[in-house]
Each structure stands twice: as C-alpha cells, then as structure tokens.
Fold this protein.
Amino acid sequence: MKTLPLLLTLSLFAACTKEATITPAGGNPPAKTPADAPKMGDHGEEKSLGSMTIGAHTFELIQAGDITAGQEGAIDMVFPAGKPVPGTVRAWLGVESGEGSMKAKLGKEGDRAVHGHFEVPKPIPAGSKIWIEIEENGQSLRGSAAWK
C-alpha cells in the first residue's frame, strides 16, 4: 500500500490543471464542458492583483482564492499571447527577504500561464506581500504585489 500516498499526491497535483467533465445521467458526456462548470483544483474566487513587469516579462498576477494564515495560497501569472514565459519562477508570501516564509517553485500551465501554491506563514508578518522571483540570465529579479 506504499503506492497509495504517491497516487493521492499525483492526483492532487494533476487536479489543478484539469477541467471537470459533467456527465449526464444518460451516460454520454457533453461535447464541451459548460463555461460555468466547476474546475477541478478550483481555488476559489480569482482576484486580479494587477499587471506586473519583472525584467523583460510583463504579466497579470491573479490570486486564486483567499489567503489564510497557516494554509496554502495559490497564484497565476498570465502572460500576453506570443510572449515568452520564464522557465524558473518562485513565489512566497511574506517579507522580501523571505525570512519566515517558504519559497515555492511555480510551474508552466499551457502556453501563457504559470501557476503555483505557496505556504502562508502563521502568523502572517506585518507588511507581507506576494513576492515573485524570476531567474533570468543568471540573475534573480523580484517584484511584489499586495494580496487581497
């Protein structure tokens, strides 16, 4: 039964990238999932934190769900069509130095987005922000946004 925890972990990881398919009682799934259907891995209400530019990358930062001390937070970075998506992105909630926070590596989703989860410190330090760090050409570049 050692494989059960691994399977559960993998299924939770995969849940953030797949849409739910609603199958009617008749058995045949619809050709297209309705736009208002819940998505697997839905983290709650999306809250735009605005447009950011870090180095050569401009993107919209979106907070996915609420930020709660001691829980997990989620964000999305959405890049304009046709623009490059950085390969290495980390995020954390806290102070710029990262002291008392845990940095999390974000992963590419599709052609235009980066998504990730980070641990929210408990207690949340005063003046905390969501920090984004992009590694580019051997440099670590940072930017921050206030969370909602």
